[in-house]
Design goal:
Length: about 240
């Protein structure tokens, strides 16, 4: 079977050897997906949902960690969902990962309630401003809240999670007040937070979060994750994350 279409390439993940199909002209996965998959605590036999999966990088990384989990990957863009589905087939992971083409806002119409042990999401970070982005452009959809908002993501995660289920998300620190408000409004309690800094002397530009459904109020703020030791040179911790991904 020919899994690769014109203009597509494959990248190979180091530890698992899994291959992912990507189109360089579209939105390719970046370091945020890699560190989110590393941050997420996924246990044996967990049922995982990845919201806005793109071409399926987070499910692929999680499947490389544990093969006895089941992951449902939801993606609204048909082309991206098709690439993710072909990636799953190419790696023989049909029994581990299901790809569903659908809208995060319609989660309650697509899936039964309270089925997930874990929900992951690498959502659009930026609020969509009319006239500044092309609402049909796949890169704009990945980066800006064109087709879903932060509240849509959090509401969907809360719907899917079992009691005490875990939600993992990466976002921008400047939206933390809004993020905490949305989590609280949807019955999700922040439990862990780790800021991500490009350099040790630079302010954070990403934040990793774990929230739990119906948990008690207490959050642990972990030491920052620093990405670069020098320009173009990853820190040892980032190198180790890439080595096991």
């Amino acid at each position: 079977m020919d899994f690769i279409k014109d203009n597509e390439v494959t990248d190979t993940l180091k530890k698992s050897g899994f291959k992912i199909i990507q189109d360089r002209k579209r939105f390719c996965f970046g370091i945020d997906a890699v560190i989110l998959a590393d941050y997420a605590e996924v246990r044996h036999n967990d049922r995982v949902y990845d919201l806005g999966t793109g071409t399926g990088i987070i499910p692929l990384l999680l499947a490389g960690q544990k093969r006895d989990i089941h992951i449902t990957a939801l993606e609204i863009q048909a082309d991206s969902a098709d690439m993710a589905a072909r990636t799953v087939s190419m790696n023989g992971l049909e029994s581990v990962i299901d790809v569903v083409c659908g809208d995060i806002k319609a989660t309650a119409d697509i899936f039964p309630k309270a089925q997930a042990d874990v929900v992951t999401c690498n959502p659009p970070y930026m609020i969509f401003q009319h006239g500044k982005q092309n609402p049909s452009d796949c890169k704009a959809i990945a980066r800006h809240e064109v087709l879903c908002t932060l509240d849509d993501v959090v509401r969907s995660a809360a719907y899917l999670l079992k009691p005490k289920g875990r939600f993992y998300m990466i976002h921008r620190p400047f939206r933390l007040a809004e993020i905490f408000g949305s989590l609280s409004a949807n019955g999700l309690e922040p439990k862990r937070m780790r800021l991500v800094q490009p350099f040790v002397d630079k302010e954070p530009n990403m934040v990793l979060l774990e929230a739990r459904k119906g948990a008690n109020s207490r959050i642990t703020v972990e030491k920052p994750l620093v990405v670069y030791k020098n320009p173009g040179e990853y820190t040892d911790e980032i190198k180790s994350i890439y080595e096991i991904c």
